[in-house]
Amino acid sequence: MIEIILILLAPFVGGLLYGFERIVRARMQNRQGPPLLQPFYDMFKLMDKQALMIHPYHTLLGILHFLTLWIVVALVICGANLLYIVFLHLFSSLLLVVAGYSVRSIYSHLGANRELLSIVAYEPLLIALSVAFFILYGSFDIEVIRENKSALLELFPLFLAFLLLLPIKLKKSPFDAAEAHQEIVGGVEIEYSGIFFEFLYMAKWLEYIFVYLLLFLFAGDSLLMASILGVIVFLGINLVDNATARVRIDHLLAIVMGIGLTLAVLNLIGLSYV
Amino acid sequence: MFKKFRKKSPWILHYNAGSCNGCDIEILACLSPKYDLERFGVINTGNPKQSDIFLVTGPVTMRSRERLVELYTQMPEPKVVIAVGSCTCTGGVFRDMYNVEDGIDRYIPVDVYIPGCAASPELIIDGVVKALDILEKKTKEREKPFRLFKDFTLKDGIVSRRESALRIGDDDAKD
Fold this sequence. Notes:
CATH architecture of chain B: 3-Layer(aba) Sandwich
CATH topology of chain B: Rossmann fold
Number of helices of chain A: 10
Number of strands of chain A: 0
Shape of chain B: globular
Strand order of the largest sheet of chain B: 2-1-3-5-7
Strand content of chain B: 5-15%
Low-confidence stretches of chain B: 148-152, 164-170
Mean pLDDT of chain B: 78
Structural class of chain A: mainly alpha
Oligomer: heterodimer
């Protein structure tokens, strides 16, 4: 019962989180910032706008991206198989990439290229994460992970690699080359408008929920540790976002594949042989 | 039903139609910590398909004219256009020069004119707030770019004035 309520509320919680984050980021820059409900104001305004369609499949792929992402979040909340969730999430990202390639805008193609490259960068880390949990507990089920004690110490290198993954997924500096708002005008989301852009906007909120739910897996069954981890990572991510510039997509690949994958593989070797 | 939310989340598209960058700097100053337009929910999107307010600076040069009309037609309704700075309103110091059109209202309908060279951030904020009132009253009916000159021949509203320019030899080619 509580799971159904959580699943239904997930986009709204994500929207609140996004609004709160905009305030936090503004306060870090000594600004006042928009109101907390600003993402929802944006949402209602986008409903009111005239919607321009490029072609129906492009629009449909955007909506499907949102729906599959919601299913992913639902599966995480229900405690399903982590490996399955990772691959379904990959499918959801790929829908957006296909949507990006399906229109003729150059920026959309550039965004789709960069989105693919960033998927190449972070996907091995997610798979390594699920394999590490399998080595620890003998099961891919999130339910089992949540019943056990926190594995933060055993998985500390993987946790550091996961911190590298966070800015890519949340589209934050220094790893936001896939979206790059002023540079390639939002990448794949450029051709969406009105109510159809809103689905991508809401998918962004669901991405927040997904990433933070994955983060809470490191805390195991401890609610206190989950909240501490959440607060520290939330503030840290925003501080890094405010303090750094965007890196190029090839540097992103080099950094995340070089440092992140090395840490992840070392951790896996350590877990299986030490 | 959602009309009142238009006022709360205006997304801005900023276009430089040959400006000297003075007004652009002032617009960026509005978005920076001191004036902080983001507290009204303003985002500088850079994408015409997702924006509500079209902020234009600069007298319209010959080169930027087609892009100006193209960007305008790409924006979904309802939308408002703000002309920032004297050049954009009337042509300013560039008025009647051979390479500029005198102000953007020769091509697209303008809702708010902000004077000043360069327009001060306070004036720009006032103009944006005024534009929000207008935005709330707008309908979703399509507004079209237009042209004030007589030789309106092309259907998309983009006509080169070079055709009607004064040539050596003929006296009254230009009207």
